[in-house]
Design a protein that fits this description.
about 70 residues; about 50% helix; 3 helices
Length: about 70
């Protein structure tokens, strides 16, 4: 995936293509943080694009707090 110029606007067909690519990779198991790093964009940008694409976002991983 080509790295996007930081801060550049992504609109129209280019945004649709990026959205489809990110969703395919996310559905394939990549994390939002991994996708953000690969594209050179922020976590929030990738999160928003995935939401716009209709992707079902996974819950947070890791340990949860338990009562003692």
């Amino acid at each position: 995936m080509a790295e996007l110029k930081k801060g550049s606007r992504v609109t129209g067909g280019e945004r649709d293509k990026l959205s489809a690519t990110l969703r395919r990779k996310y559905d394939g198991g990549s994390s939002i943080r991994d996708l953000a790093e690969q594209t050179g964009r922020s976590y929030g940008f990738v999160h928003r694009i995935l939401g716009e694409s209709g992707a079902t976002l996974r819950g947070r991983g890791g340990a949860t707090r338990r009562r003692k």
